[in-house]
Amino acid sequence: MNEARPPAPARPAKASEPSEPPLPANLRRNAPLVPTDSAASRALAAVIAILTFLAALCAGAAEIAVSSAGQWQGSVAQEVTVQVRPGAGRDIEADVKRAEAIARAHPGIAGARVFSKAESERLLEPWLGSGLDLSDLPVPRLIALTLPPEARPDLSSLRTALTEALPGVASLDDHALWLQRLSVMANTLAGIGIGVVALVLIATGLAVVFATRGAMAGNREVVEVLHFVGADDAYIAKAFQSRFFRLGLRGGALGAGAALLVCALAGLAARAWRSGPAGEEIAALFGTFQIGWQGYAVIVAIGAIASVVTAIVSRVTVRHFLR
Amino acid sequence: MSAGKNTGSLLSGAQEPVVRFEGVGMRYGLGSEVLSDVSFEIAPHSFQFLTGPSGAGKTTLLRLILLSVKPTRGLVSVFGEEVSGISNEALTGLRRRMGVVFQDFRLLDHLTTYENVALPLRVQERAEASYRAEVVELLRWVGLGERMHVLPPLLSGGEKQRAAIARALIARPELLLADEPTGNVDPSLARRLLRLFMELNRLGTSVLIATHDYGLMDLVDARRMVLGEGRLRIEN
User: Fold this and answer.
1) Which residue in chain B has the smallest CA separation from A37?
2) Complex prediction ipTM
3) Which of A7, A28, A227 sits opposite B141 (nearest CB)?
4) How many Å apart are CA A124 and CA A139, to the nearest integer?
5) Model confidence over A135-156: pLDDT tens digits?
6) What is the pTM assigned to this prediction?
7) CB pair distance less than 8 Å for B95 and A228
8) Where are the beta strands (DSSP E) in chain A?
9) CA nearest A281: which of A291, A270, A290?
10) B193, B166 contact by CB (below 8 A)
11) Among A7, A230, A233, whose Cβ lies nearest the Cβ of B88?
12) Using one digit for the tens of pLDDT, what is the confidence trace for B71-113?
């Protein structure tokens, strides 16, 4: 220490004077105010990663179920069925032809396919067994009507036309009951998925509350010094928030990354299985077993939300702690 | 030296005191009073010592001025503002006008010497480039130019002391509080540090040094605030 007068910190330094040694190039500046690398920090990042992974997997599974239900709904909603029942003293073939003609003439019907008597009987085989003579049974005949994908025609007028032309014989099934059930199932699965993700995010928030309180207690002296050198509560909260946001980001990225990897691997595995003997069943149940870009976006969003939740919860906890 | 009769300054009649205590009493919890009926003023640009035996309440009195504890009774005013019921924003504003040197330094071990000294400016959210040269110059002036990269655990007691003093000075405080600032250094360095405080006082900072080093106090003709059994007595 030299004996000269103090440098009067009031004034900006004359760093450009030739006698001044240059500032060290590697001088460390603005390191985080709250120590970041500790066992507790790593444990919290691991907890956030695991919770994010579980939430993301759950969201991925819900997305698969909802998109599969959507595919089923789409294919079911593309068709309606006209059922023609055999009536006493009526020629069922003539009734079928009449019903087909009415349906084809109706605006908005893209196509009609009449199931032959043999096809109709084959439809009953799963229930009645094969090799039976069904000629004495009043097996109804079906006409599958294809709807255009862009707009659903007015089916009530078609239904009225059929019942007026063939009263008590022809009826129209628009699969509304099935569609409704599928819709309820899809919404339930989506709701369960959202609920589980919300629970996991709440668990993340609670873990962060405990971790923040622990960090505050462990850094009590740091907080006190920051107060004494003129830091306000908002600044201190920001310092902690920034620390926890980084931890949350690390945990969220790890968890979401692992979930993305698992989903991608599951998609590849499903593709391999589809070429095997059970492939058709798997495809029928899960569709392509791929979560699509929305699913990947949801997983990335869950990672980001976990980080943001971590930051916000830590900030609120610190503000509450300092009060 | 601008030590006056009652408030430590010749300017005491002209300007509002930096600190004013009126009948202040302080106890921790249900214990006996650490301070009883303490009344005094610290005038702008004044220099004074606060002394007394260990456990007399020097640190408590400094904490009261720092607004880190509230008095059990009596009035405390800092920079003209009565501090009971003060808002957090106002509290921060008042603390930014003070510099403090703690007995145990209170340097943050995970920050380098440079970062520790720059802390009061950093928490004001100033850009690092705007104060870098200032901090480095002060560090060089207190003899820590070669140690600015070092973390506090690797500094000697004297170096920590100087870093703590530099941190207290960097934001140009109007009031400097120092708790045993020469307690960890040899007598020669203690005299140099004392000269530093006197120079700061000459530049306009009010200085209050808590010490029980009578040898140090004898070097300066300054007001002495003596604490004993919780009561304050002013000596010149």
Assistant:
1) B110
2) 0.86
3) A7
4) 9
5) 777 788 899 888 887 777 788 8
6) 0.69
7) yes
8) 79-84, 111-114, 141-146, 170-173
9) A270
10) no
11) A233
12) 999 999 999 999 888 888 899 999 999 999 998 899 999 999 9
